[in-house]
Amino acid sequence: MGAPGPIPEEGLPPAAGRSGAWRWLRERLFSSPLNTLLTVLAAWLLLMAVPPLAEWLFIKAHWHGTSEACRADPAGACWSFIADKYRFILFGTYPYAQQWRPLLATCLMIATVAASGMRRFWNIRLVFVWVAGLAVSGVLMWGGMLGLGYVEDTLWGGLPVTLMLAVFGIAAAFPLGIVLALGRRSNLPAIRALCVVYIELIRGVPLISLLFMASVMLPLFFPEGLDIDKLLRAQIAIILFTAAYIAEIVRGGLQAIPKGQYEGAQSIGLSYWQTMRKIILPQALRLVVPPIVSTFIGLFKDTSLVIIIGTFDLMLTVKTAMADIAWRGFSAEGYVFVGLIYFAFCFAMSQYGRALEKRLGTGYSR
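^ that's the sequence the OP posted. Answer follows.
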């Protein structure tokens, strides 16, 4: 046997079967007998489910026409139901001719949230962006000025209400949760006890009970003549509930910060608030980005619980649309449509959370 030749500078090529698509398939799908069995089972399930689903969703679906045409050929989805009811589903009972206003307010809220996610806006200017965005959205929704007719909030519904509950809930619950987390770790016994009682009390009950209390029980304690709007009461309940969970998440991040960080800040003469604002909180929040994003996604989905107090959110508008006698029997199409809307927003938040986690370098990879 002759001596092996010199190794090329660019290195040896990978052995056959150790690179490319085959290696990827073998490592991820066929790495063991159990994984092979699961892969085959998953492929069989997809083969059984995807073709009929695609046929129902697209191939045999009715995109235009009447409900009678859908009933005559029920093999496909009746998307003509969505085409006929989409404005009611998205905007509820808001006056038909004025529905450009909730549409514009919705776009403005989404743009405000998108701007908040950009690091270049993480300064005092973001406060002014939020104030301006909320003020303009309120003017658009309520009207009563600038030539816009007044529309009372009992007529609001659909996507703007869902987004409003979620966006305002996140914006108000996040700073409140941070304050509660700092209060729970305070050296002052009274403040610490108050924060502990609040957090444990709120976390000990489900959101649906808080909404019920805000809608039914709370008005019984109001003095005569005082009435707070039902939508505002639901918004406050959502904020209080979410803040308690964020407080516990932030507290976990604070506990993960080494004691040396506090001692280092004290050694250079920083005050308590300077230490928290400049050293401790940035590190603690960076550590808890994934659970905070999960809480926000959960909050967006939990806004559908306001249906129990009769608030016309996205879920209630689609249920009302399905109750129309002319279109009764096409609930699957309605739920698919609303599900896609929820998925789009939740997926966007999830992707942003992953990008933010990677950008901040938390040390965790998924």
